Amino acid sequence: MIVTRFAPSPTGYLHIGGLRTALFSYLWAKKNGGKFVLRIEDTDVSRNNEEAALAIVKAFEWVGFKHDGEITYQSSRMPIYKKYIDQLLDEGKAYKCYMSREELDDLRATQMANKERTRYDGKYRNFTGTPPVGVEPVIRIKSPETGEIIVDDGIKGQVVFQAEDILDDFVIARSDMSPTYNFVVAIDDALMGITDVVRGDDHLANTPKQMVVYEALGFSLPKFFHVPMIHNSNGKKLSKRDGATDVMMYKEMGYTPEALMNFLVRLGWSHGDQEIFSMDEMLELFSPSDINKSASIYNPEKLDWLNAHYLKNMSNDELSNALEPYDILLSSHDKKEIVLDAVKERAKTLQEMAELIKEILTCPSEYDEKGMKKGFKGNADEVLKAFAEKLNTTQELHLPSDYHHVMEATITEMEVGFGKIGQPLRMALFGRMSGPGLDEIMAIIGKDETLNRIERILEKIRQEA
Ligand code: GLU
Prior knowledge:
The protein is mainly alpha-helical.
């Protein structure tokens, strides 16, 4: 059975890049009927980790992920790590190192002056003498000094590291006996039965170290998939300046989880030139071995495009539920269908859609200047007045088409083109030239409010004349 994990360090929110890693891990486990577990890597952090975990779970809930089993907190596993430290010490695979901070600094300085790689020199590796007093030792693991370490990566292929270039007897426990990152990750992945480690390629250089731990403890290696980073359009690692990094911000901005998942799966993975993927299709088609070898580019327009696509394809019931957090309560509104049909193809996000609906429902408080000039050329105000009179005497006005008939009757009678009524009416109803269809707006706000808005703009023109 395939078991994958998502192993974030607690930050208080779920990062958009983290969500992509989680998505890839999740898809790979679930498509194979496997398990996807959540581990909070909180050995180094003293802040409230449960809150941080909760933030991740909340984001998972929003996008529809469920992790299997309980959340594992590394901070609660200290006795396990201690046991393995003791075991390695007993077996002579790890040792206490008494090098003081000053000594280490001196060593570094000399190595730098000699243009050598800075590294621990193995002074205490085979030490049998009397340890210096007053120095709390760290624990170092004996690592190969020469030879190749080959990471057989499912995305990058075989990545060859020279032991002498990257390994030294790295510290597995600090002088206060707190275990270090590469040590605990390897232990946890092994003990939690992780078969496939899917993570960012910023961790690739850690993998040889973790392999040393696997080897020393006799654990069998998982498969590794190191996913290339997400870059901005300048080829730099994605940062807050490029847009929201917190996943829940995307919810607030009005992106649907389906669009976000679709967006993320395409950041680094593709299937022919298909762009739209439902969760079911992702589960069917995804394989980590198809992930690109190079970084992917974060493109916010693409997310907007996808989101608009998903909004367009939502049912009006789904949309009206999704709009409730934006103070748009349509579920029992008698014009719900017309409102949503009027806006659903015009907004990139739920937030934009909510704004648009509010705009429709509120009488404009200001009018676009250029639009006024364009809309009220010639006898446009006369035409608008004639339309208002006709509307006033028309009885059955319900559907957009009912209002449309009145517009048509007006232009026929006045012998003018459609623009002569469309443009001033649009200014009256909406305050600017762009926006949803006039027939729909009138059907939504009704006859009285339509007349009210026309009267207001005519009054304004009279005053300014
Ligand atoms: N905790 C690490 C991070 O948040 C990830 C470790 C891993 O996936 O192996 O970057």
